[in-house]
Amino acid sequence: MQQLNKQEKREKVQQLFWDLSVDIDQIVRFLDGEVSEIKQVSTESLYHRMLKSFSWYTLQKMVSRDVLRGMLDDRILSRLYPHDLKKRYIYAREVLSR
Q1: What is the separation, in whole angstroms, between the first and last Cα of the chain?
Q2: What is the pLDDT of residues 9-37, one digit of tens each?
Q3: Rounded Cα distance, 12 and 6, in Å
Q4: Which residues contact residue 51 at a Cβ distance below 8 angstroms, ignoring those fewer than 6 apart?
């Protein structure tokens, strides 16, 4: 599966944060592993928004498998609703860990 380029990732992140004034480029660099933290939004909030907003296939194109594993942490999945969405990502976590 081909990864999104920086501009495509930037556009996706802008869609996520249409309601907040955040440094989109810093978030893209974080997702690419170029920086270790984001100052304006928590990692958990970022991951939660991504899981709620994007398809599994889009997520796979945006981030590495290691980042995906981090997204599928219990702290983040516990905040997801509806329950079917949470169940889908729990299953995805199991598949990733194989």
Answers
A1: 18
A2: 999 999 999 999 999 999 999 999 999 99
A3: 10
A4: 59, 71, 76, 77, 80, 85, 89
